[in-house]
Write a structure and sequence with these properties.
By secondary structure, the protein is an alpha/beta fold. The chain is 35% helix and 24% strand. The protein has 12 helices and 16 strands. The structure holds nicotinamide-adenine-dinucleotide. Nicotinamide-adenine-dinucleotide binds next to α1 and β2.
């Protein structure tokens, strides 16, 4: 069993912990928090040993009735690999500790590529991650872009990609972020950082991206345009999406034309926390114009799509499963992940 520590038990970390716990070949040896919180209570309830960044804060946890197993360094000493899911920028500060303990580490998209010098997406570059010491799982938006671009590029050649990201303002639990009543250009300049971030995984792709933030909490919506090298039909692209283990079609027959209805659908499917681990591509939107211009809308559940990628990154770094398809199959199967 691979012993996994989750440093930072927030939106991403709590999901990673649950998905690690569901795998047949891994176990959660601990999770960490800085302050007492609802998530810390849940860690106790789930039976994950809870470690804290600074032991001086233990009395606050004691007063809140939250059991503490020790400090983060203690947790890391028991681990084979750490998934760092602390807020963007904090992960880089944690790196010297991981180096000191000679511990394999996986960071999230809030960190720069340089934190690991290797950016990961299971569908694109799993083999290159085998037995590495470090990897960074790219952000939710970049993960969603990499999956569709790589699949289309492999089959038909992606001559150029142009994409617009309509981003959620906050995660559902976030009470301090906005906007409440605005569409915010983020950034107002073009291109946004998403294109270069895709190139950390797929360096040869010609991509320009634009982004804005809207007052919603569940999902980003991508407007994707890919110019193909080889002609394809709409049916070819639909088949490509259906065959992909991390992409799914939002069927015309469901009548779903929004993120809100998609969330309700995910809940009705019984997905934990309404999590959609896959790109949700609207079947009706998939269009090929002039044989080589592909257009589509895809919804990306920001809290969920990177979670399954972290699981594959663990297997790749540990070198326990050599084949990407096999790791993806194992991860998906442990979640009873059936197509949307
Ligand atoms: P979050 O704020 O929800 O959770 C971070 C957790 O880290 C909190 O529980 C906090 O208590 C803990 N923490 C803070 N400082 C710590 C420290 N020094 N040591 C240990 N724990 C500490 O953040 P998040 O949204 O889960 O984001 C984590 C990472 O994942 C970031 O890099 C972010 O960019 C990336 N990411 C976030 C999303 C998203 O939509 N939320 C999507 C993809 C990637």
């Amino acid at each position: 069993m691979i012993k996994v520590a989750v440093n930072g038990y927030g939106t991403i970390g709590k999901r990673v912990a649950d998905v690690v716990a569901a795998q047949p070949d891994m176990e959660v040896i601990g999770v960490s928090k800085t302050k007492p919180s609802a998530e810390a209570y849940i860690a106790n309830r789930r039976g994950y040993p809870l470690y804290i960044a600074d032991l001086q804060n233990k009395p606050a946890f004691d007063r809140a009735g939250i059991e503490v197993a020790g400090d983060v360094e203690e947790m890391l000493k028991h681990a084979d690999v750490v998934v760092d899911a602390t807020p963007g920028g904090v992960g880089m500060k944690n790196k010297p500790l991981y180096q000191l303990l000679n511990l394999k580490a996986i960071w999230q998209g809030g960190e720069k590529h340089e934190v690991a010098d290797f950016s990961f997406n299971a569908s694109c570059n799993y083999a290159d991650a085998l037995n590495r010491q470090y990897a960074r799982v790219v952000s939710c938006n970049t993960t969603g872009l990499c999956r569709i671009i790589n699949a289309v590029d492999k089959a038909y050649g992606a001559r150029k990609v142009r994409a617009t990201m309509v981003r959620r303002g906050s995660d559902p639990g976030g009470i301090k972020k906005g906007p409440i009543d605005a569409v915010v250009l983020n950034p107002p300049t073009i291109p946004s950082h998403h294109g270069p971030d895709v190139q950390t995984v797929l360096p040869h792709i010609d991509i320009v991206t634009m982004a804005m933030i809207v007052p919603t909490t569940f999902m980003h919506m991508h407007v994707v345009h890919i110019d193909l090298e080889k002609a394809a039909t709409r049916e070819d692209i639909l088949a490509l999406i259906e065959e992909h283990p991390r992409m799914g079609l939002v069927r015309k027959g469901t009548g779903i034309t929004s993120t809100a209805e998609l969330k309700e659908y995910a809940l009705d499917m019984g997905r934990p926390r309404a999590d959609l681990w896959e790109n949700a591509i609207y079947e009706e939107s998939v269009s090929v114009v002039n044989d080589t211009e592909l257009y589509l809308f895809q919804a990306i559940h920001q809290e969920a799509d990177v979670v399954v990628e972290n699981i594959d990154a663990i297997r790749a770094l540990m070198g326990t499963v050599e084949d990407a398809a096999e790791s993806i199959r194992m991860t998906n199967e442990a979640l009873s992940f059936t197509a949307i």
